[in-house]
Design brief:
This protein is α+β, with helices and mostly antiparallel strands. 41% of the residues lie in helices and 23% in strands. The chain folds into two domains: 1-169, no CATH class; 184-315, Distorted Sandwich (Glucose Permease (Domain IIA)).
């Protein structure tokens, strides 16, 4: 229905139609336009404020999440460094100790660490600059540690390949047949000298047995000496490598020669009563880096735990050396 405006005429007491001029129509239209603009502006203002606040909240939330992720990553790197330090400790104190070698040199582990601090200048001015720089430093340190540890393990691997030869060479059986364990006459340590009757260091173990009893090499090696050796009488010295040597003294006869390669269990001589000896027996020594050590520690390859305990008990008795 057409929108028509009327105006009351008091003279004629009638309503007459009001016709707007073009200017009036434009004026009326302008009111509508202004109202619409004001309404739209109000809506946009409220919407913009809400959108801006939402963006700020989301940005703040995202920044907080990123910070948390970066912090967690930094913590993971710290844990990795701790694991690498633990591996290094195991490498030096366990793996290398097994092969009796020195720890991996510290100066090689530190090689390339530190470096030029200017390389981290590129992180200046960035958001979370401090923690990002710390992460970059840790990543570089991990790379250096991994490179050094890899080289160290290469060396350990080579030592592992030689381990089989070392195990064959280390003396690990009794030098005479002694299944009943009754042939041990005197142990390692201070003992009464059979001739001088004074306490003197006894650097080996004495096995009492009849003259002619077989003597066996206790590990793989090369015969270094076969000759009369002072109070030892007729003696045999075997070089097993890896710092180990064994001496077999007071022999009656030899069954080896200098330079001969022998295997564990090979017959190398026979028990006798030569040198400073009061009866037929074998004086047996184990030397590591030229120092005598208790041979009892090297009888593990042919004794049960119970027999080994018994041998320790027998050898510790305060007897006189032969």
């Amino acid at each position: 229905m057409k929108n028509i405006n009327y105006k009351y005429n008091p003279d004629t007491l009638e309503y007459i139609e009001v016709k707007l001029s073009i200017w009036g129509k434009l004026k009326k239209l302008s009111y509508y336009l202004i109202a619409a603009i004001v309404f739209c502006f109000s809506i946009l203002s409220v919407s913009f404020y809400n959108i801006r606040n939402h963006i700020k909240k989301e940005a703040s939330k995202e920044t907080q999440n990123i910070r948390q992720e970066i912090t967690a990553f930094n913590s993971d790197l710290t844990n990795i460094l701790q694991v690498l330090d633990d591996i290094q400790q195991r490498d030096d104190k366990i793996y290398r100790s097994i092969f009796e070698t020195t720890p991996y040199p510290e100066h090689k582990r530190q090689l390339g660490t530190g470096g030029n601090p200017m390389k981290f200048k590129k992180y200046e001015g960035l958001k979370h600059e401090e923690i990002i720089t710390e992460i970059a430093q840790k990543v570089e340190l991990i790379e250096k540690k991994l490179a050094a540890q890899s080289k160290s393990f290469d060396e350990v691997f080579e030592l592992t390949k030689a381990k089989q030869d070392m195990l064959k060479s280390i003396p690990s059986i009794q030098p005479v047949s002694n299944r009943d364990l009754k042939r041990i006459a005197s142990g390692f340590g201070y003992r009464m000298h059979p001739i001088y009757k004074i306490l003197k260091p006894h650097p080996g173990i004495d096995f009492a047995a009849p003259t002619g009893t077989e003597i066996y090499a206790t590990g793989d090696g090369i015969v270094e000496r076969v000759a009369w050796t002072g109070g030892y009488g007729k003696a045999i010295m075997i070089d097993h490598g890896y710092g180990y040597k064994t001496r077999y003294a007071h022999c009656s006869k030899y069954n080896c020669r200098v330079g001969q390669k022998v295997k564990r269990g090979d017959l190398i001589g026979f028990i006798g009563n030569t040198g400073q000896s009061t009866g037929p027996h074998l004086h047996y020594e184990v030397l590591k880096n030229k120092k005598p050590i208790n041979p009892i520690n090297f009888f593990f390859n042919d004794l049960s735990p119970e027999e080994y305990d018994k041998v320790i008990e027998i050898s510790s008795r305060p007897t006189q050396s032969m």
